[in-house]
Amino acid sequence: MPTTPLRYFNEDVARARELIALATTPPTGTALPIQLRSDLFRSARMFAVAALDGYFCGAYADLVAATIISKTRQDLVILPDWFYEIKFPVRSILQPMRQMPTGVGEWQPEK
Fold first, then answer.
1. Biggest alpha carbon distance in the chain?
2. CA distance 61 to 66
3. pTM of the shown model
4. Assuming Cys at both sites, which of 16, 25, 62, 87 could form a disulfide with 47, CB separation 3.0 to 4.6 Å?
5. Pick from 87, 71, 91: nearest CA to 79
6. Contact 9/51 with Cβ under 8 angstroms?
7. How far does the chain reach from its first CA to its final CA, in angstroms?
8. Residue 109 in contact with residue 90, Cβ under 8 Å?
9. pLDDT band at residue 104 using 50, 70 and 90 as cut-offs
10. Which of 16, 36, 14 is nearest to 26 (CA)?
11. Rounded to whole angstroms, how far apart are CA atoms 49 and 56?
12. Residue 32, class by beta-carbon neighbours within 10 Å (0-12 exposed, 13-18 middle, 19+ buried)?
């Protein structure tokens, strides 16, 4: 399982839970207006949806990139025909190359 997307997912869900906790039980001595509580609940929902979207997009990108890298390293890997039809932004695969140690993936995308 891709660890970075999962870590981001867990962090974002934790933030959503904190918003729910704030809306449910505001700090002692404060009274949140109904509209503000509603906004906090709505914000928490959006954080949760964004966390899930980010996780699936990130995990998908990691898996597709890993598959492509495996295919370039091992010609015997057989990919199904539908894999070649995947619409995928190449930048998502090449971007991590900028973070590799010197001598590996020295190609730099244009800015």
1. 67
2. 8
3. 0.60
4. 16
5. 71
6. yes
7. 31
8. no
9. very low
10. 36
11. 11
12. middle
* Residue 97 DSSP code: G
Sequence letter at residue 98: R
Residue with tokens 């870590």, as numbered in its chain = 7
Other beta carbons less than 10 A from residue 74's beta carbon? 8
Percent of the chain with pLDDT over 70: 78
Q: What is the pLDDT of residues 50-93, one digit of tens each?
A: 999 988 888 888 888 888 888 888 889 899 898 888 887 667 65
Pick left, alpha or beta for residue 29 (phi over 0 → left; psi -120 to 50 → alpha; otherwise beta): left
- Residues 86 and 43: beta-carbon distance below 8 Å: no
Dist CA 62 CA 44 (whole Å): 27
Unique residue bearing structure tokens 């914000």: 43
Task: Please give the radius of gyration of the chain, using alpha carbons only, rounded to the nearest integer.
Answer: 21
CA distances, 59 to each of 9, 24, 56, 72, 98 (Å): 10, 32, 5, 20, 19
